[in-house]
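chain below, 475 aa
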Amino acid sequence: MSAVLSRLAAIIVTVGLLFTSQVFGAAVHAAAAEPGYLMVHFTGDSATGQTLYLAHSTDGLHWNDLNGGAPVLRSTVGTRGVRDPALVRSPDGSRYWIIATDLCVRCGSTYEKGSPHLVVWESTDLVSWSQPRLLNVAGAIPDGRNAWAPEAIWNPETHDYVLYWATNATLNGVLKYRIYYARTSDFRTITTPRVYIDPPGTTPVVDTQMTEVPPGVGTYRYVRVSGDGRNTVEGSNSILGTWTDLGNLSSLGLTGNVVEGPVWMKFRDRDEWALYIDHLSRNGVREYRPILTGNPFDVGGYRLQAPENYDMGGTAKRHGAIMTLTAAEESRVLARWPDTPAKRLQSYNFPDRYVRHANADVRIDPDVSPADDAQFRPRPGLAGSGTVSFESVNYPGYFLRHSAYGFQLTHDDGTGQFAADATFRQVAGLADPSWSSFQSYNHPDRYIRHYAYQLRLDPITTATGRGDATFRVTS
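prediction:
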């Protein structure tokens, strides 16, 4: 009987871990199956910087860029720029969301008057993401001028998510940034926004981020940090309840605009947390820097890390999110975004022309501008084995796909039909075996070829056709 009771107790503890573990507010998964960490972030104010990037770490302090340091998601909606992404996992681990600021600085948007929308992506596997969509969160706020730095956390008290962000608006005669919140179950519709954090007087606040802390650490259940000039740390036992001021980061020299975008991360192998801060260094470069602590509620114990204690990788890591991965999630993520070099497909019989996309159409052209329109990453085929699919470099998630025997650059919708249409077998060149030809996976009697400079999928029966269907895969 004692053995049975011991086993039952072990099961109860395991189940408890499954439902109390938190990553950005989503109750998730068994700690025993968490081999690494995933970071989603942007890099800066450039056009390519205001897209989303991924990095992976095995220890939470040393980071490697995924996808060769190239973007993995690009917004095609709103301002077409994204910053400050949050990464949310559903309580049962069956769904994920990325929520980001809709802002493209230096390409049409301004900090002063931005978008009332957030940009949302959705996934069921952490690697195949929906097309981005806009979520209007500030439009219902009187004088709401923008929506910045979204975050979301699962609230067990209301069984939905608390979505919160910063909006610059006039309230009681004072124009400043405040943190607003709304509740949502699907990140498609929200309740009426309400003020969440409003410091006294004219003091603004942005970039609030919170996490749940396991029982036994301090006297609170949640900890949050806010960019209010002092970078205030607070504790609470209820997400929408009363919060207690626990101190700030000024003792570490982190005040004002020196620090932005705080994000919490719990180490999987010990009772220690990292508070990553978007830090302005002495040389004027912004990038994440970790603060370590064994108790997030004891601000006096925070330890700002020296550069030799961490490595942020090759690309700048700006205001983002960190998720502790399960083994299955890590396997999928690393397989989806390996360090695959970008390639071009050069025409055999028109060697000055390369396959490129233009307004979703696909053709061969000389002097392609921008050059990224003619660059693709050869991925393991979306269907079959020993096959290849071609993903756009500047529109990640979009692949060369045939439809009605013509070609387009199309977003992967996750269907079997798309996978088959976007998959090919690389064979010896039909006109020159030292080059390559690409046989359709689902129409094996047809090959990729150009005709009147447009890409087509055709049977090849003539010498001209063999030349048209032959390409060189080149850097």
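Residues 48 and 242 are 40 Å apart (CA to CA). Residues 1-33 have pLDDT under 50 and may be disordered.
thats it, cya
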